[in-house]
Amino acid sequence: GDTFPTGGTVPIIPNPSKAQQKLLANPKLQAKMAARLPEGINPLRAAGGFKNLGQFVAAVNASNNQGIDFLALRRLMIGPEGLSLGQAMQQMKGMDTRTARAAANDATVMANLDVAAAADTVPTQKTKRNGRN
């Protein structure tokens, strides 16, 4: 089964994913994710397999906000199905496409804010530089 025991020590993660590397470097975000995950699930282990940190944080948020089983959601997203967050939520909750997409978007926006806040930065708009002021 998919169990992710927690403990006082940092788990040894062979070949950590980008999401795991970023989470390892950000204890504040790790703690926030641990608080949102079901008891006994280690956020570092749970982040394995996700494409990036934002996708993992959005999945945790969606699971927390919508009352969706995180491990089942994770399996749909990182397993052979490779579903998007919206598709996985739609399948698990029986939501229509529009509702699932909106809920996934909310979880993603919240994830971006969580990641930025934990890094003590504020997300900024990217501006094009054309050499003129």
Report on the architecture of this protein:
The chain is mainly α. Helices cover 56% and strands 0% of the residues. It contains 7 helices and no strands. It has helices at 18-24, 27-36, 43-46, 53-66, 70-78, 85-93, 97-118. α1 (18-24) crosses α4, α2 packs antiparallel against α7 (97-118) and α6 packs across α7 (97-118). The longest helix is centred in the C-terminal third of the chain and has 22 residues, at 97-118. It is globular. The mean pLDDT is 85.
Blueprint of the fold:
Elements: H1 18-24, H2 27-36, H3 43-46, H4 53-66, H5 70-78, H6 85-93, H7 97-118
Rg (CA only): 16 Å
Distance between the termini: 58 Å
The biggest beta sheet reads: none
The residue-averaged pLDDT reads: 85
The percent range for strand residues is under 5%
What is the tally of helical segments? 7
User: What structural class should be given to the helix and strand makeup?
Assistant: mainly alpha
